Amino acid sequence: MNLSRIQKHGLIVSVILAAGVVVAQGAWGFHWRIQEAQFGRGLKAYNNKDYAAALTAWRPLAENGMTDAQFKLGVLYANGQDVPKNMILSDMWLILAGGKIDGNKNRKKVEQRMTPKQIAEAKRLAREWTEKHQKK
């Protein structure tokens, strides 16, 4: 096959780009598996009522945007499990988790125990958290 110099260059660039995509996907998949394993360790600890270990596993995941972990932090704060019971922080994490799992149902239960001022504070904190973490 006779390729012009430009065609060869284009082919080389295409191969390099394709290799980069494969490497990036592999790295992302590896990172995702690590997060899932960490989440699983937190879940096992939670089921064993080791809330401190669950919190240690889930907090960094939640702070990095994993909605499952954000939901679980909302539950920990609502129940006061190894953290001071804090309905504002519970609501904030449940807002960030969105509709994940039963997030909206749980959020409604949490907000039933809050004043309108506390709900507004939770929404403000969630908005600030989102703004801060979107800049990363």
Describe the structure.
By secondary structure, this protein is mostly helical. The protein has one domain: Tetratricopeptide repeat domain (Serine Threonine Protein Phosphatase 5, Tetratricopeptide repeat). The protein is 80% helix and 0% strand. The radius of gyration is 21 Å and the shape is globular. It starts with a helix and ends with a helix.
- The value of Rg in angstroms is 21 Å
Strand content: under 5%
Q: Which bin fits the share of residues in helices? A: over 70%
Distance between the termini: 47 Å
**Quick one: how many beta strands?**
0
Shape: globular
> What is the H-and-E element order?
HHHHHH
The poorly predicted ranges are 7-11, 13-28
What's the name of the CATH homologous superfamily?
Tetratricopeptide repeat domain
The biggest beta sheet reads: none
CATH topology: Serine Threonine Protein Phosphatase 5, Tetratricopeptide repeat
Give me the oligomer status. single chain
Q: What structural class is derived from the secondary structure elements?
A: mainly alpha
Number of helices: 6
Calculate the mean pLDDT score and round it.
80
CATH class bucket: Mainly Alpha
How many domains is the backbone divided into?
1
What is the CATH architecture term?
Alpha Horseshoe
What labels describe this entry?
136 residues, mainly alpha, Serine Threonine Protein Phosphatase 5, Tetratricopeptide repeat, 6 helices, globular
